[in-house]
Records
---
Amino acid sequence: MSNDHHLNTSTSSLQGRLFSFGAVTDVQYADCDNGQNFHKTKWRYYRNSINLLSEAILFWNKRDQRVSFVLQLGDIVDGVNRRTKASQSALNETVAVLDKLSAPCYHTVGNHDLYNFTRTELAHSRLFSLTPDKSLQQDTNCSQIGINGADLWWETNRFYYSFEPAPGFKFIALDCYDISMLGHGGHHNADFIKAEKFLKSNRPLGEDDLNSPEGMYGLERRFVKYNGAVGKKQLQWLQHELRGAAENGQRVVVFGHIPLFAGSADHQAICWNYADVLGVMHQFDCIVMYLCGHDHPGGFSTDSHGIHHYTFPGVIESLPGSNAFGTFDVYSDRMELEGMGDVPSKVVHF
């Protein structure tokens, strides 16, 4: 799990640190033998991924500068579990590992999560009923959006929310599968039909495999079934959250499963309506970074409005002996990322 890009985390270098948080994505655990990705270009180490998650949690629990929370950026279990009827057992195993974390863990929804469970099932699952730190529950905003338990998730299947971990900072979780063909439990569901119609209207006629980008070029290749979109109501909510943060002088980190910026990921791994989401985000100058997963090799780029887009590498494709997670130390003017394994260390100024 060595990394040649470690930052200096000595006591002197950490003076002025406000708080720290961890990030990990695409664990995609399954109790099965190694397999290859959809395009047969990379190996996926299904059974070993939960061991790497355990290593990350042990690191965070023992770190001198303890993390205040961890962001789990989606795809905690792999879709192969659905075929082997092991979805629930795989989720139970990963949640048992997450329970060992000595800090709150905040989750986003990924496509593999929705291969295994409907949105309703996921809302009622142990993953989204894990209760975060009580100090965050007392925040009025947090209690309104379901951070205090899973009451709102149960009622609405809404997986977007915000929380404020420290004075001057807000974190906003997006549901990038708000509009999606995944997780609706059947072809007769109205939301499924709406998403299918939207997807097919943006694809070449006659192409039956909706997961294939064949016949499409550049950013057109994002119109595949394993991606999704952020709905109108959520966009309005995002605008409201960002306006409040800007008025209050807060720095904002937005996170979700799917990349929003072409410079930070493969074009076929981009959110369907990325332009709409960025259009809202670019109205405000308070956003530091957008964190996501989904595109397993990872990537980093800064857009024209100064927002840093960081696509974290996926744990599932980390070679044996490596890993893929990171820890951010937050200061008043920057975030210092201590990367492990496939995640390079980086300093982001704001």
Note: The chain has twelve helices and 14 strands.
---
Amino acid sequence: LKGTRFILVKNPWSHLRWKGKYCEHDDASWTPELERALNYDRETAKKSDNGVFWINWESLLHFFDVIYMNWNPDLFQHKCIVHATWQASDGPKRDTYTLANNPQWVLDVDSADGKDPVWVLLSRHITRKEEFENNEDYITVHVFKTDGSRVFYPGAALVEGTKINSIHYLAKVNGVSRGRQSYTLVVSQHEKNNSIDYTLEVYSSAVIHLKPVSNDSRYEKEITSEWTQATAGGCSNFPGTFGKNPSFCLTVHATSQSANLVIQLKGPVQYAVGFSIKPHPSSPEAVKFGSHTSGDYRNGFCVLQLKQVPAGSYYIIPTTFQPGRTGPFILAIGSSCHFTVESAS
């Protein structure tokens, strides 16, 4: 209007307006003509503070560091919304090495023509004004192309989120193929100091479904142990000391069906860690199943998922890559069938 750009802004707390230029008390800037053009009644605004105000563009840029734009969700034919809590006690403070304990959601997308983008909106709940003014919780959401399974390792995301201390984070998933596709959405924080309540919303013109990542580990157990000077034998590249490593006997008591196993090893982050699982010679079905490893050694964390593991006994041997690396470790085992585990060292 006459060379001045105006924006109508609403304080999300529904009270406390801007007190600078063009506020309701700024008699010098407002004119009856301007009030009519903006359909703004200053006298009514002076009597009731609803947090809605006009501000000129230059003041907005100078004094505000965050602004949220409303969008029309009716633009999208399909939407999914979930509300959840992430407890501060769930998992490590930082998810640099593992995402295993982060909230994870399966997103199924059924696109008729492969041209439908998907929008993912993560919103942290703010219940106190102080949380908004001093927000030190940096949040984001990562999108992984998966079969709907849990993601354990960071990196290799289809959409790598950026952690910000805004209450909202918006991600766009492009390149959705025609037909049914599955993705895993992983909520992430920079340094998890507080429990947070959040809402995850997904919008698309394609048919979408959102649900928590399933966990078929009906039975779980953690073992805390350590590598000592006597037992830190290193990986199999060091055959002279490898046999000194701690070992554990895992017995799968599967009956009518085989087991699905998830084995995690957590160790000092300065060490590259890994493990192998080998059949006990007295278990013929286990011998047929063979030996497996957690793959490349990784700092602080590694995981192995095994499907259709037959009943029998197996040795699990956790190691550091280099011998002589002493320190504590945790061996966490989850199984769809009953099992027992004990030290075999």
Note: The chain has a mean pLDDT of 92.
